[in-house]
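job 3f2a | input accepted
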Amino acid sequence: MAVVKARQQDIDLMARLLRAEAEGEGKQGMLMVGNVGINRIRANCSDFRGIRTISQMVYQPHAFEAVQKGYFYQRPRESERALARRVINGERLWPARFSLWYFRPQGNCPSTWYDQPIVGRYKLHCFYEPTGEECENVYNAL
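job 3f2a | predicted structure (142 res):
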């Protein structure tokens, strides 16, 4: 059962995002990018207040570097659609399980990103969870 509303065009949009942001990280890395996106929709806090749909999340200004580049605009493949369905259906993986941010630094992960602490790293991406009461909903939205 989907944890956010998703039509076929939303699945395709999420699939394109997963591929463009994390294809080099493999299936697990793409799932984690999807976790962050779904968390942003469900948490409704911080910079993501009012983000209620996959389209709003993907096209939020300055949220995803890949959306600003041409690679994002390729057609989705069935393998990425399957991954998109998994995250839309609520599958979550550590360290992205409750993360609202990720970052791909040139070297080591910064200890904080947007004043939020690092929770872990998967391959080249560093994941950050919110702290404080403002975003506690990300932990309740299972």
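job 3f2a | The mean pLDDT is 93.
job 3f2a | closed
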